[in-house]
From TrEMBL:
It holds the Pfam family Response_reg. InterPro entries: AAA+_ATPase, AAA_lid_NorR, CheY-like_superfamily, Homeodomain-like_sf, HTH_Fis, P-loop_NTPase, Sig_transdc_resp-reg_receiver, Sigma_54_int. It comes from Gluconacetobacter entanii. The keyword Repressor applies. Keywords: Activator, ATP-binding, Cytoplasm, DNA-binding, Nitrogen fixation, Nucleotide-binding, Phosphoprotein, Repressor, Transcription, Transcription regulation, Two-component regulatory system. Residues 5-119 form the Response regulatory domain. CDD domains: AAA (cd00009), REC_RcNtrC-like (cd19928). SMART domains: AAA (SM00382), REC (SM00448). It is found in: Cytoplasm. This is DNA-binding transcriptional regulator NtrC. Residues 140-368 form the Sigma-54 factor interaction domain. Gene3D superfamilies: 1.10.8.60, 3.40.50.2300, Homeodomain-like (1.10.10.60), P-loop containing nucleotide triphosphate hydrolases (3.40.50.300).
Amino acid sequence: MSLPTILVADDDRSIRTVLSQALGRAGYQVRATAHASTLWQWVEEGEGDLVITDVVMPDLNGLDLIPRIRRVRPDLRVVVMSAQSTLTTAVQATQRGAFEYLPKPFDLKEVLAVVARALATPATVVPAPAVAQPEEQMPLIGRSVVMQDIYRIIARLTTSDLTVMISGESGTGKELVARALHEYGRRRTGPFVAINMAAVPRDMIESELFGHERGAFAGATCRVAGRFEQAAGGTLFLDEIGDMPPEAQTRLLRVLQDGEFTTVGGVQPVQANVRIIAATHRDLRQAIRAGTFREDLYYRLNVVPMRLPPLRERVEDIPLLARHFLNACHEDGTPAKILEDAAIAPLQAYRWPGNVRELENLMRRLNALYPQETLGADLIEHELAEAQAMSTPAAEGAVRDNETLSDAVGRHIRHFLETGQDGMPLHDIYDKVIAEVERPLISMTLSATRGNQIKAAAMLGLNRNTLRKKIRDLDIPVVRGGG
């Protein structure tokens, strides 16, 4: 039995050498060339069991070669490599029939794993899809490893209507990913309709989603189509799905199960001809445990989970993103600005709590407020220091001017109620909030008395046994220091 032969096409001699050596050590025969025309000649002659090709070569684009290979050798697997590493490249490679897409620089272990999987997977002869190739509009920016994984998932989903759940912190670009899934998918000619659950009053969500009939409620003077009808034939993006109230969750689950819905006040079922993409910044598993999100709905929505990384996990993308946003400002008609190379280091050292959205806002602010053409490190450091000062107290234990303890507690409770912090059910928070106040109060009093519980009980005005019980119930560590 002859060894499998791998055909390698890349105009970079070092890449040909590295791949030839690695594949040879793994037990494969290798034929390598710098030209797509030579690769095509080998394919026509029946050579090879697998193709690994670069995209940009002197005589032909590797992506254009894939449909030709599929026509003459439909069982021959093609693996595409590219240094362009953009979403569009990944999508085009997948849509034209590539078995896998690998961004450069690649990991040799991953290459060998892909080769083994491609040779072991039975070939299925499927005609190449006749799809219009989208222009290179860079809907998502970044060439980091984590973004390449996102690109590959999007590329693989272009031929399916599977429901997707996008999770990630605020500002990571969840709606951009949802739009990319739509614009590169089978429903691209249909509408993309988005609704933010956190922005719709609870008593209006069902009407917003499913529409209502005339007379369904006070003020309903005519029939209004909901977002499901508006998105017919396209994609419905349910942003901040974790903020959906329980009654609307029940109706959404029924729609996902039955494929149809009725308007508020209506009796005639309407077909739900939409692809669902949901997004959340919350931990929905924690919300399920807290009783604020239905577990059965979670599994209906979480068919394909996608996690968007925060910007601090992809700092290598910051230079590309920052310069992209400055270029966007210039395209809007403002003078061109250049980011000094030295300015990259402070940008990459910052934590970016607002993620990509915060970086975009910074670039737009710098473009508008500073007249100089070159933006240097000193300017960046000054702006980031200002942002840090606005979001962080000046010192540990700092107290706002004229703020009472009641004001501080009220401020935190207001934030808690507005955000539904940590997925706690908002109908059962009294004991939890009281515990959050008691824990630091007792802990700091014990610290002030150096662990002396008799003195702490006297300071707090509590019975000593009561204090001991609270220490035990609240799991407060006690360090005895005498006194």
